[in-house]
Design goal:
Layout: H1 17-55, H2 69-74
Length: 76
Amino acid sequence: MALVLPTTMIEVPEGQEWIIDMVTNILVEVLASIVEQERQTIRRRQREGIDVAKKRGKKFGRHRKWVEKAFGMEYQ
């Protein structure tokens, strides 16, 4: 995924490109912080939902597959 920032279309006087780099870095840091906070919120809510479901007796994971006893004997 590419992040296109509006600063890429700005003409900057020669020798002052560092200002655009600084602004770009700040924008990236702010956006990364927001995304990280959202992800933590999602994980917390997901964990709360799983805990509630487990307390209600909800089973998680796939069902056990039935295997004949003879199958295991073939590989011993």
